[in-house]
Fold:
Amino acid sequence: MSSSTVLGYPRIGPNRELKRALESYWDGRTTRRDLEEEGARLRAATWGRLAGLGLGELPSNTFSFYDQVLDTAVLLGAVPERYLAADDPYFAMARGTDGLAPLRMTKWFDTNYHYIVPEIGPKTVFTLDAAKPLAEVREARALGHETRPVVVGPVTFLSLSGALERLEDVLGPYEELLAALAREEVAWVQLDEPALVTDLTPAQLDAVRAAYSRLGAAPDRPKILVASYFGDLGPALPALAATPVEGIGLDLVRGSVPELALDGKTVFAGVVSGRDVWRTDPGRALEKLRGVRADRIVVSTSCSLQHVPYDVAAEDGLEPALVARLAFAEQKVAEVVELARLLADGAAVPFDEAPVAAASVSQEARPARSPYPVRAAAQAGHLNLPPLPTTTIGSFPQTGELRAARAGVVAGALAEDDYEKLVEREIEHAIQVQEDLGLDVLVHGEPERNDMVQYFAEHLDGFAVTKNGWVQSYGSRCTRPPIIHGDVRRPAPITVRWSTYAQSLTDRPVKGMLTGPVTIVAWSFDRDDLPQRDVVFQVADAIAEEVRDLEAAGLSVIQVDEPALRELLPLRAAEQPAYLEWAVAAYRRATSVVADRTQIHTHLCYSDADQILAAIDGLDADVTTIESARSGRRILDAVSGYSRGLGPGVYDIHSPRVPSADEVEERLAATLKVLPGDRVWVNPDCGLKTRTYAQVEASLGNVVEAARRLRATL
Ligand SMILES: Nc1nc2c(c(=O)[nH]1)N[C@@H](CNc1ccc(C(=O)N[C@@H](CCC(=O)N[C@@H](CCC(=O)N[C@@H](CCC(=O)O)C(=O)O)C(=O)O)C(=O)O)cc1)CN2
Ligand code: MET
Ligand SMILES: [Zn+2]
Structure:
């Protein structure tokens, strides 16, 4: 007999109820109690929905007020001492307070979800605090649902914390957790181990064996499901199979059906993708399910559904032909249930005719730009910038007025013309602020954009956008990833009118501002009938047209952002060089169309730029701005001697804190120790859209001041 389950479910709420509850609590408009109550309502609604759809086994503890890795740190008692005195230590770790920087945040594997990086030192004492998973189990039970609590497993938790050597110390609390769940008469627990699909070091592989041999030997415990996802387990599969754990979760969408017979195990077979929005072909899924050799099969999703929106039924603006191909979380749950039924019935289901499209990508090679020194000289003559030029990453604060106005246009309550006038006023304001502050290369501030990817998707053929397809990116922040369903083309210029309007207001250079092809595809749901590379190249050609038009319209500096370049890096090292080669080629295809005197900037965030430095160099941008404020030394060491313009961020924009001029000066001085003064740019870590104008003006004022002080010393 087969059953059905999902590894996790979205938690932001079908109408972003959690986002609103969090932000009103953070603003002091509601209490912690109100927030808890909203959380309970959302969990109850999710369990009710999953049970109503006929799902066999329900997960719990997949809800979080901020992030599941942070929740696991709390579960293990790994709360750094300095946060304990805060009013709300949990959110102090996640977001910081006036006097306290938050913990670092970074990307969850190759997704656009961000987790909080636990801070674990040699002295961190692990003590179990199982309140949250126990409370969720009881809460669900009171509603009539038995559940399988989900917790990040020890190997992934410690690998992401850079503290694998603490394995022995952390296993005690995990054992106590198992015992507590056993006392609660919980049948199964799910330990998430996505780190096992990456290239494991011998130490990590030993850790897998040690951890699951020991937890498997615990006397009183629920059955253990070790859930892997985002790829194949590789050598971790036989290692796990040799331990006493009862269940192994396999991603059979990214990974393949293993040869190994998993005798004595239950396989949670992830045949419904948690990473895309396409319906599952039942014929193919059944073939995979029938290929799995195990004692028992539970039909499942490839990973948590937290990476897809709630419900296709909430969309009324999409083409019916597209809707027929789509499955969001609700629809995916129904698919899992139906596949379990078909498998149990031994039904014969034919394959869909998989449509295989032909890529309409021109393969014509573009001439490379002149060597950097030639370009640099042409640009210096043309732009006439001071040493240590100051700039920003592109976005200025997205005001409530702008958001409300966009909502008004969508609702038909505000005329397009009035909206565009508002955007122009916003640009005038941003330019005025930058001139007053004395910045050197200005931006228009991106007020016309709801999001740096969705905005482009709305103006390109081949993309569909949703009204309510929100997916959590971090904390209360969400995106609506566009859906790529056809060949990408640019029917008309997109940003030119806003950039030229901004340039018309000032004598200083304004940077045109575009999102790069890799990032546009990475933060969209990709089509499933073309290789990703071909789709990225189509987008690159569309962006190249925009770059050409911006140059022709008189913009001398054009930034093409690629913050997701690192994100799409395959998890297995063997696949990385091929990816980096085409990703870099796509970027050059988008940007190599300009004259020498036009300066191309790129921007990447996230602190592990050092891992792909060769690729960043390969982009061949004249100026690269990167995040570095929270990982300063390491990044500076990595980029020392970089041969083109570089702007390591001088302050962290994720926090409302205003950096002092002294602090910025110190960072700049450190940068000048490793990079020649004529190459260094001065800028924040990333865009300013999540900040307020008051914060931005104060911070940038200090940045300009620090740059001036240091210029005097060059
Ligand atoms: N796609 C993407 N991924 C990214 C980033 C990014 O900028 N974009 N940055 C990095 C960090 N991730 C981020 C993800 C989201 C946001 C963010 O600010 N999201 C906004 C939503 C942006 C948006 O789509 N805004 C729309 C809709 C805004 C909205 O909520 N409107 C209200 C109505 C308007 C009102 O009265 O306020 C509603 O629908 O209820 C708009 O401005 O038009 C949010 O969650 O608040 C920031 C960073 C990495 N990944
Ligand atoms: C996540 S990277 C953001 C780049 C974009 N130009 C901005 O300033 O918001
Ligand atoms: Zn950024």
Q: What stands out?
A: The pocket of 39S (ligand 1) is lined by residues 112, 398, 400, 403-404, 406-407, 450-453, 473-474, 477-479, 523, 690 (CB under 6 Å).
